[in-house]
Specification:
It is built from four helices and seven strands. The chain is α/β, with parallel strands linked by helices. It is globular, with a radius of gyration of 14 Å. The two termini are 20 Å apart.
Length: 152
């Protein structure tokens, strides 16, 4: 998130937010115009929302979408998608998540995802075969990986 600090983010989507650590970090570092939390876990959504509010994010800037995948109600494009991939759902579900994010991404938008190094390696191969996104940053640390993707 520090690498995109100077970028203006109007709409940020945080998928699979857990307790909201990434969402809170996003709010504190970048102050996006709106943050949408997307997950199938309603309890995770509520805790993420609460933690954003406790960290001084105005409630009117927080949107919640309780659903599978990262498709959300609004037709507006997002400037940033960020989240952890659920590897237990399988490779095809991961690819679908990235495809959904790419479809809803603004022209200058970016996607940041984390997962195990193995899942990231498979995802990079998939991304390169599709030609829709390009890998701008790839980081590895103790069996985990992070990708920063942008439209080609």
């Amino acid at each position: 998130l520090k690498n995109i600090r100077r970028k203006e983010i109007h709409r940020a989507i945080v998928f699979n937010p857990g307790q909201g650590h990434v969402a809170v970090g996003l709010w504190k570092l970048i102050h996006p115009g709106n943050i949408f939390l997307v997950d199938r876990d309603l309890l995770a959504l509520r805790y993420s929302q609460l933690n954003l509010i406790l960290n001084e994010c105005p409630p009117e800037k927080i949107g919640i979408s309780h659903r599978v995948g990262i498709d959300y109600e609004s037709e507006e494009k997002a400037d940033l998608f960020v989240g952890a991939l659920r590897e237990k759902e399988g490779e095809n579900a991961i690819f679908l998540t990235i495809d959904q994010a790419a479809d809803r991404l603004s022209t200058s938008g970016i996607i940041i995802v984390s997962a195990s190094s193995t899942a990231i390696t498979r995802l990079v191969a998939y991304i390169e075969s599709q030609g829709i996104l390009r890998v701008r940053i790839r980081e590895r640390w103790r069996g985990y990986g992070l990708l920063l993707l942008e439209k080609t």
